[in-house]
Amino acid sequence: MSDALVIGVLALQGDVREHLVALAAADAVARPVRRPEELAEVDGLVVPGGESTTISKLAVLFGLMEPLRARVREGMPVYGTCAGMIMLADKILDPRSGQETVGGIDMIVRRNAFGRQNESFEAAVDVKGVGGDPVEGVFIRAPWVESVGAGAEVLAEHGGHIVAVRQGNALATSFHPELTGDHRVHGLFVDMVRANRAAQSL
């Protein structure tokens, strides 16, 4: 097995390139994933921001939804930003018709909770597990987490709302760290992937 960690970015829609750059900066080999056979070759996966309904429908169309659910159930590390957070939620409070999720985190999310595109903003966010100064969070039509189950750990809040959550090998943020040039959240995820692979090799 190669020493290099291979982390995919679900490349159906959204800010794929920025995640590829951030993962590479965090010492991972980053690849776009569009097909089930590409998913099978990665150690972990990022589900990017974009439009959660579109990503859901394209994942079904490309035959990725069921393989992705299976890999997440099996413990593959996965990180969702913004729309990706919605995709990793076990429940959406206000889903669009036909919208499905991958699941993996016992949380209920509210779509576009922080407002519309013209209400996008940046804010400093203290994220548990990320050392140093607060992370600059970019919130674009961002969801928030209404509630979490016992298995999910809240990593950050903003304005009294949950904006970062981890459950086992699944990580999710309401905001977009890939847009800031600060790769510490991606570094946290790369560490999760590295630890998972080390545990599997024991």
Structure description:
The chain has 202 residues and is an alpha/beta fold. Helix content is 28%, strand content 30%. The protein has six helices and twelve strands. It has helices at 16-25, 36-39, 52-61, 65-73, 83-88, 184-200, and strands at 6-10, 29-33, 44-47, 78-81, 89-92, 105-110, 121-125, 135-139, 144-148, 153-158, 161-167, 170-173. Helix 1 links the parallel strand 1 (6-10) and strand 2 (29-33). The longest helix has 17 residues, at 184-200. The protein is globular, with a radius of gyration of 15 Å.
Helix count, per DSSP?
6
**Strand order across the biggest sheet?**
2-1-3-4-12-11-10
**Helical content band:** 25-40%
Taken from the alpha-carbon principal axes, the silhouette is globular
The main sheet comes to: 7 strands, mixed
| Fraction in beta strands | 25-35%
Low-confidence stretches: none
What is the count of β-strands?
12
Topology of this protein?
Blueprint: E1 6-10, H1 16-25, E2 29-33, H2 36-39, E3 44-47, H3 52-61, H4 65-73, E4 78-81, H5 83-88, E5 89-92, E6 105-110, E7 121-125, E8 135-139, E9 144-148, E10 153-158, E11 161-167, E12 170-173, H6 184-200
Parallel strand pairs: 1-2, 1-3, 3-4, 4-12, 5-6
Antiparallel strand pairs: 6-9, 7-8, 10-11, 11-12
List keywords for this structure.
202 residues, alpha/beta, 7-stranded mixed β-sheet, 28% helix
Short description:
The chain is built from six helices and twelve strands. The chain is an alpha/beta fold.
